[in-house]
């Protein structure tokens, strides 16, 4: 609700500044950012529907004169060897990412709840230790984890990936979920306790349903992280049939870099699941991500 | 109004008996059950690797993975690193990469958040498009940009030639002088959306009344931004910049896939260099020593990060 004086003041300000430099500057800037963001993706799509010959021209064909879905057909066709490999990479990625997501959520939910609600000795220390994990790059952990995986016989299995993906999935999941639990009023649980529920029952029956958006957001984050992970998969897996998409498409094209339409089509297919997932659920996701940082 | 939280309840329970730490831990044994699985996973996949890396940094190892045949060399690996020219070259690259990527990503993301803060037609769609690069895989991003930078068929080169700004397409990522800035452009493309998301969330917490009051008092747009909006965003800015800086410092995929650190180390940063030392040249001891140094640097980042976050909590409590 604005008072008359405010409205008048605003009208005056508007009249004084016919040309709102800030607004126009903002618009021009957004157009620039849109071009910067979108053009590479548009170029990926346009290249992916060219023939190999059409892509290798200078100056380039801006718009493919004979658009073709041949690259996509090749990648998605289980009848030929390229398609077989590519689809296997796709399923491997899906399997590893889903397994990681499920495990992260199962382990992170109780931990985040405890960090949010309980005060046990060492709570802060443990929480910040968990947080600090995300400071450290995968490379530091590669050699020891490789040796560890070899010792327990997990090298060249997807199990090694799922286990290592928990190293970066868990800390984030715990952090995101804790933000959600912090925002659920304790009184709700206390009411349940008074009604005779145990603490665990209150957690399962009252808190869990309320934190569903947080769990969804956490699950997406874990999934995207695992889906895009490259360095562990690149180091731990050696057999062609095990590779996940990021490593798979690299093996695919590192020897034969001339097939840029194929490479762009593969990049596009790899991006689709996470982008769709993200766009559909971005509301939850953005909230979870920014929850902790914006308090003041 | 008094709100009895779990926290105060627990604190009250603890106060009467001046019991030892063990007793407190015993009293809270049920709480630990919730965090135990997480801690167990963390111990196996984090604590052990860190311990092992520190140990290995004091040894020389034969090539291959016969790490049992290692010989103790004291601090030799560390002195070897600090006296090598490559180390300083790579450190300089890392500094440019981290500061450049972080600074520009933050400024662009912040500016985009400000521009998107005002409602207009198509805002939601525009925001969604701007976020996409952050979600797609860095591997895909690397290939897309490699193709864009291609020295024969790249689109940027073609535009420059078409406009008469170059005789032939430049070698963006094959030339020592342009490779690092070219990779930074890719990196910013991928991560300014993160800064944008964080700052958009931050902007929503700036009280409208304050801005309106400032406007009534005659503050212009810049003054409103500088004296009202920006001070409110101190906290979220700190966290965002720290997270970006750490992520950039730890980058691997973009430089590794696009150039492999070349040409002649011009785009090697710490992480790619460590990776090459370990898995390329199998110098596990030296690579481990590098990792320990990295670890120490990151602990410094971590200190500020924790301080920023816990400063957050403290203000929460008093608010």
From TrEMBL, chain A:
A cellular component term, taken from the record's GO annotations: plasma membrane
A biological process from GO: transmembrane transport
Main localization of the protein described in the UniProt heading: membrane
Pfam families in the record: BPD_transp_1 (PF00528)
Top-level taxon of the source organism: Bacteria
Chain ranges passing through the membrane: 24-46, 89-113, 125-149, 161-181, 202-224, 260-281
Residues covered by the ABC transmembrane type-1 domain: 90-281
InterPro entries per the UniProt record, alphabetical: BP-dep_ABC_trans_perm (IPR050901), MetI-like (IPR000515), MetI-like_sf (IPR035906)
Subcellular location: Cell membrane
Entry keyword Transmembrane: yes
Record membrane topology: Multi-pass membrane protein
Keyword presence, Cytoplasm: no
Keywords, ordered alphabetically: Cell membrane, Membrane, Sugar transport, Transmembrane, Transmembrane helix, Transport
Purpose of the protein: Part of the ABC transporter complex MalEFGK involved in maltose/maltodextrin import. Probably responsible for the translocation of the substrate across the membrane.
Family label: Belongs to the binding-protein-dependent transport system permease family. MalFG subfamily.
Protein's name in the database: Maltose/maltodextrin transport system permease protein MalG
Originating species: Mesorhizobium japonicum
UniProtKB/TrEMBL annotation, chain B:
Entries under Gene3D superfamilies matching the protein: MalF N-terminal region-like, MetI-like
GO cellular component: plasma membrane
Span of domain ABC transmembrane type-1: 91-305
Pfam families: BPD_transp_1 (PF00528)
Transmembrane segments: 32-51, 95-114, 120-140, 172-189, 239-258, 287-306
Cross-referenced PANTHER family: BLR7065 PROTEIN, SPERMIDINE_PUTRESCINE TRANSPORT SYSTEM PERMEASE PROTEIN
Name of protein: Sugar ABC transporter permease
């Amino acid at each position: 609700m604005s008072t008359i004086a405010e409205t008048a003041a605003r009208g005056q300000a508007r009249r004084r500044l016919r040309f709102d430099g800030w607004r126009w500057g903002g618009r021009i800037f957004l157009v620039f950012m849109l071009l910067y963001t979108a053009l590479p993706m548009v170029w990926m799509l346009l290249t992916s529907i060219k023939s190999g010959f059409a892509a290798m021209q200078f100056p380039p064909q801006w718009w493919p004169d004979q658009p073709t879905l041949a690259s996509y057909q090749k990648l998605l066709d289980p009848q030929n060897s390229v398609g077989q490999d590519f689809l296997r990479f796709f399923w491997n990625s899906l399997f590893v990412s889903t397994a990681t997501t499920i495990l992260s959520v199962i382990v992170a939910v109780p931990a985040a709840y405890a960090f949010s609600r309980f005060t046990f000795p060492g709570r802060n220390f443990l929480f910040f230790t968990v947080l600090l994990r995300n400071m450290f790059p995968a490379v530091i952990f590669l050699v020891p984890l490789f040796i560890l995986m070899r010792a327990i016989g997990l090298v060249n299995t997807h199990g090694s990936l799922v286990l290592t993906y928990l190293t970066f999935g868990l800390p984030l999941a715990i952090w995101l979920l804790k933000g959600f639990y912090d925002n659920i009023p304790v009184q709700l649980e206390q009411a349940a306790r008074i009604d005779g529920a145990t603490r665990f029952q209150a957690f399962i029956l009252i808190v869990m349903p309320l934190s569903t958006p947080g769990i969804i957001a956490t699950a997406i984050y874990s999934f995207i992280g695992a889906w895009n992970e490259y360095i562990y998969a690149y180091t731990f897996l050696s057999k062609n049939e095990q590779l996940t998409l990021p490593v798979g498409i690299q093996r695919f094209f590192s020897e034969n870099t001339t097939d840029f339409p194929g490479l762009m089509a593969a990049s596009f297919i790899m991006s689709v699941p996470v982008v769709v997932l993200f766009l559909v659920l971005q509301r939850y996701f953005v909230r979870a991500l920014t929850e902790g940082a914006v308090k003041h | 109004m008094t709100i009895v939280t779990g926290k105060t309840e627990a604190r009250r329970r603890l106060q009467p008996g001046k019991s030892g730490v063990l007793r407190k831990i015993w009293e809270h044994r049920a709480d630990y059950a919730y965090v135990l699985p997480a801690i167990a996973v963390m111990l196996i996949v984090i604590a052990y690797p860190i311990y092992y890396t520190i140990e290995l940094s004091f040894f020389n190892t034969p090539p291959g993975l016969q790490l049992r045949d290692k010989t103790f060399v004291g601090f030799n690996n560390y002195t070897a690193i600090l006296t090598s020219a490559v180390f300083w070259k790579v450190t300089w690259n890392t500094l440019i990469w981290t500061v450049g990527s972080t600074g520009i990503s933050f400024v662009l993301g912040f500016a985009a958040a400000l521009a998107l803060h005002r409602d207009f037609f198509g805002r939601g769609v525009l925001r969604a498009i701007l976020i996409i690069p952050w979600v797609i895989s860095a591997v895909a991003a690397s290939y897309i940009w490699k193709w864009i930078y291609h020295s024969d068929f790249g689109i940027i080169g073609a535009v420059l030639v078409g406009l008469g700004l170059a005789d032939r397409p430049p070698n963006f990522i094959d030339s020592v002088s342009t490779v690092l800035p070219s990779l930074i452009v890719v990196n910013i493309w991928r991560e300014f959306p993160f800064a944008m998301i964080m700052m958009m969330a931050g902007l929503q917490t700036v009280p409208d009344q304050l801005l309106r009051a400032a406007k009534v008092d005659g503050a212009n747009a810049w003054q409103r931004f500088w004296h009202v909006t920006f001070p409110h965003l101190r906290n979220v800015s700190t966290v965002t910049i720290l997270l970006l800086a750490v992520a950039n410092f730890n980058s691997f995929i973009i430089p590794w896939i696009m150039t492999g650190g070349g040409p002649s180390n011009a785009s090697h940063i710490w992480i790619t260099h460590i990776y090459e030392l370990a898995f390329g040249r199998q110098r596990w001891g030296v690579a481990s020593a590098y990792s320990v140094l990295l670890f120490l640097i990151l602990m410094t980042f971590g200190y500020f990060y924790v301080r920023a976050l816990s400063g957050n909590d403290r203000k929460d409590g008093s608010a």
